[in-house]
Amino acid sequence: MDEKFIVLIQNAPPGFKLTVHAFHQCEDRIKWEAFGHYTSDATGTVNVSEDLSLGGTYSGVEPMGLLWSLIPVPGSKPGLRMRKLNVQTPMEVTISVYQGHQTEGFVDLVSLASVLVERWHMAPGIRRIPITEDGLSATLFLPPGPGPFPGILDLWGGGGKLVEYRSALLACHGFASLALDYLTNKVTIETGNFVDNKYFEAAYNVLQQHPQVLGSRIAMVGLSLGCAITFKMAIYSEVFKLSCAVCISGSHVQPVAGSLEHIMDYFKENAWKTRFSEENETIVRDLLLPITTDTSFKADVGRLQCPLLLVVGEDDQNWPAYESAMDIKEMMEGAGNSHLLTVLSYPNTGHLIEPPFTPHTRASNFMSAASHKSTYLWGGEKVAHSHAQEDAWRKMLLFLRENLYAGRNPVLTSFSHL
Amino acid sequence: MRLKPCFNLHRNLTGLHRAVGAVRWRSSCRPAPLLTAAPVRALIDEQISIKGHFLLPSSPVTVCARMHSEDGDLWEAFAHYNTNADGTVNLSRDHSIGGSYMGCEPMGLFWGLQPAPGAREGLRLRKKYVDTPYVVHISVLDGHVSPSEAQGAELAAVTAERWYMAPGVRRIEIRQNTLVGTLFLPPGPGPFPAMLDLWGMGGGLVEYRSALFASRGYASFSLAYIEHKDLPGPKNCLNVDDSYFKTAFHLLRDHPQVCADRVGMIGLSYGVYLALRNATQPGVKPSCLICINGPVGSTIKLSDAGGRTENIESNNKYWEYDDQGLVTFKEISSPANLDPESKVKIENITCPLMYIEGEDDQNASSTDNANLIEETLRAADKSHLFTRLSYPGAGHLIEPPYSPNSRISLWRVKPEKVFTLWGGHLAPHAAAQEDSWKKMLEFMENNLRR
């Protein structure tokens, strides 16, 4: 799913106007399309990876524009977001070529040629293992081979559900990855109570104790609310010993004491700061602004002992990720551990920084943990956001590989078994 | 924090770590090395790039491939490498210094696959069901070992799928108008150029080459003509005549998604004779012909003017057995020994013809037949139609690339087991398959698309 493809059209007449079109029907039965306008060269060839799109849902030289610029077909409901929940089947995309520079009514046109492309989250040999012990709602993805593999604990945000696709992709890159649902898990659904810190520690232990996971090389990746948990566990948990952490579109502003319940209460207390856009979209970035100076409401990042990668969109309308990143930098510089910090900050990029080629969603219908449904504004401009996703993913993989696979090793302890 | 015993993997302890072997990795503080393959899902004729990372620098490793055929036999290949100073091995860059192949061979693990020790004799790797992939388990092992020595001592592994059929290709069983075959259509509206695909005397319905052609944009029809349960008549005879092949050609030509004037034919072995014979029949006008290692006439006596033959076994006094008891059909396919009534009038060919010849073909007299075709066309002033690709060291079974050659395989089980000698040596045959496939596709593009 994070691989690039090459779309090549050949044997067209030279200088021929044509439209390259992508079509996908997602799991929710919504139809998505993207298209680019091209002119074939003197040999009658169009190479989407090298040639200029003159218009459509994307323009310019964009090898993967046919995927990241996918939008719901005209007539669809507003506020939609494409998410694949079943990672065991591929995303099927039909790529077709039409005569002329078409902009609409593709379903009624006859294409000149088409191919079917399969985009997978899971490589062959990856093992998908549901985990339900200790009341956990999680899925473990193991790469093929004997291991041991470094481990990753993978947390998403306030929307809940067990979102597996990032973990599946991480496993394709050699990491044992555990996707964890901590908002719509069984116990929370049944009792209405949020999980406590022990829930996350149990998840960590699943990785730590797994015979094919290298217990001394575990990382945590969090998005949005998942970052809050990441900071809490990385800094304050006795159980967690992370090799590194990645926080995407999140903040360190949270009550230091307590657990998830207290974090959620803190948001509720600040909910009056919610704003609305002209289109009535919910903007909640102000809930944590201005960044407080009260240290009992900020995770003490000065105490971090492992490398931290922050990925933030400067147009994040949902969390003040950029402002938080700047504050984190200041705190770590003050504490003398800023050598551990890397910040990737992307202009015109919104909140939902997802694996590459995922279509950008500027706003969508969202059911918050308070069970209140509305349209939330995430932010970001399509092109910049899509490029940011690609760049951030690549750099995140490098960061994880560096810290989990290469050199930098706790020094050996004893030769007593020799 | 509890202290865990942990081995330091500094190079000074290389000798020790080798003695400890696989156990070392499991109890160490380092993760296992990383082995990657790209793409992990590929068509059979696509190259897969295999790399190992985070291995010990300048150290011996073995890269190994294992897979099960559809019959459940285990096939394996392996190669010995020394990692680079940065602890990597890259099969597209590095040289194998031993194993199933030598030198820099990015796809050697696939064309070098051989039956594992203890396997049944005379195996040949052929895929019957093209809608599922070959699943290949690729691993990297410590040291220079053979796969059987290294059970359970893998350092890292990756699984690759190799497909004969691309997504979107449609497979259509054809049992109409007496025809027995399978049609493969590329995805999309068409119309497509097309190929009629004929195999040899082994019979049955062989689909994989057609599936690949369809994956490359050609409508392709695999036609069975002998030894298939849905075909009429007694066993071991060719019971269909010229009208059968004409019907097949017309099915393709008249298909709404096929370009009527862009239909070619490909034949291997006896399929060459059939392709040539039908190309010179009225009503059949292929746009091009590809002939692989086959004769210009029938190796079995014809029983009628329509092309049917007598029993294959009726010729068996001409089958040669070499000193190992292997049967070959070289003599009976020599131009001088072919049924004279069946010899095709090559001078009547009107379309481009590509002849692919394995110089080590031990099964058919390919060289003699190729010479005959070349001379006949030259005499008829038609040399411009003829292309000949000749491959030293290649045998009879020149198939799609990156599949292992079988120099010998089981030909018949009853009344007794007979093995046949196909010829071809592993590495040169693999090179021939790779090169001829590429040139075949170019030939098809030039004659069927432009």
From TrEMBL, chain A:
All residue ranges annotated as the Acyl-CoA thioester hydrolase/bile acid-CoA amino acid N-acetyltransferase domain in the record: 2-133
Domain of life: Eukaryota
InterPro entries: AB_hydrolase_fold, Acyl-CoA_thioEstase_long-chain, BAAT_C, Thio_Ohase/aa_AcTrfase, Thio_Ohase/BAAT_N
Any GO BP annotation: acyl-CoA metabolic process
Record GO terms (molecular function): fatty acyl-CoA hydrolase activity
Database matches in SUPFAM superfamilies: alpha/beta-Hydrolases (SSF53474)
A Pfam family that the UniProt record links to this protein: Bile_Hydr_Trans
Catalytic residues identified in the record: S224 (charge relay system), D316 (charge relay system), H351 (charge relay system)
UniProt domain BAAT/Acyl-CoA thioester hydrolase C-terminal: residue ranges: 196-405
Family to which this protein belongs: Belongs to the C/M/P thioester hydrolase family.
Protein name, as recorded: Acyl-coenzyme A thioesterase 4-like
From TrEMBL, chain B:
Domain Acyl-CoA thioester hydrolase/bile acid-CoA amino acid N-acetyltransferase span(s) in chain numbering: 45-176
BP-aspect Gene Ontology terms: acyl-CoA metabolic process; fatty acid metabolic process
Catalytic residue list: S269, D361, H396
Domain BAAT/Acyl-CoA thioester hydrolase C-terminal: from-to ranges: 243-448
InterPro entries: AB_hydrolase_fold, Acyl-CoA_thioEstase_long-chain, BAAT_C, Thio_Ohase/aa_AcTrfase, Thio_Ohase/BAAT_N
SUPFAM superfamilies from the UniProt entry: alpha/beta-Hydrolases
GO molecular function terms noted in the UniProt entry: fatty acyl-CoA hydrolase activity
Domain of life according to the entry: Eukaryota
The family this protein is said to belong to: Belongs to the C/M/P thioester hydrolase family.
Protein name stated in the entry: Acyl-coenzyme A thioesterase 4-like
Organism this protein belongs to: Pleuronectes platessa (European plaice)
